[in-house]
Write a structure and sequence with these properties.
With 159 residues, the chain is mainly α. The chain folds into two domains: 1-89, Arc Repressor Mutant, subunit A (Orthogonal Bundle), CATH 1.10.10; 92-159, no CATH class. The chain is built from six helices and two strands; from the N terminus they run ααααββαα. The longest helix has 14 residues, at 91-104. It is globular.
């Protein structure tokens, strides 16, 4: 079996994020946790995932601090999987993926699930990226300040 490439020591935040929650099962587990799934069987039934894969992904999400376990009401040997603060901080990521998918992965009029504001039942406003001063910003208006001696200063790009 080929060893998985790890990015847990990368200097890029995207690489470290992908290392922690980047496979599709993990993201779908997080999505289902936001949708109210708590029990192993609920995740398994929603995703149609093999028990061994689900157990491994849940363990990895717990190890990454995204999920935690809590006792179920009534006690017993079973427990609930709950999002931690770190896991709840993934909400904008899940919303961004959902909104991107709605725009780019469905034909016009094709039915799909929708994320609605619980208070008024309306869809959420599309997410956008804002600069520190509040203005909307595009990819062309950003630069990545990489670490390391070979990296040019963002105000003085290499020629």
């Amino acid at each position: 079996m080929v060893a998985r490439t790890r990015f847990d020591t990368a200097t890029c935040p995207v690489a470290r994020s992908v290392d922690a929650i980047g496979d599709w099962w993990s993201l779908l587990i997080v999505r289902d946790a936001f949708d109210g799934s708590r029990r192993f069987s609920e995740f398994r039934d929603s995703l149609g995932i093999a028990k061994n894969i689900l157990a491994a992904r849940l363990r990895a999400l717990i190890d990454a601090g995204v999920l935690d376990t809590a006792p179920l009401p009534g006690g017993g040997a079973h427990h609930a999987y709950v999002l931690t603060d770190k896991g709840r901080a993934l909400f904008p990521v899940i919303v961004a993926l959902r909104q991107w998918g709605e725009e780019h992965c469905f034909e016009p009029g094709e039915p799909h699930s929708r994320l609605l504001d619980r208070r008024d039942g309306h869809p959420l406003r599309p997410l956008d990226v804002r600069a520190a001063d509040g203005r909307a910003i595009t990819p062309d208006e950003t630069v990545v300040a990489k670490t390391g001696p070979e990296t040019p200063h963002p105000d003085h790009p290499a020629t």
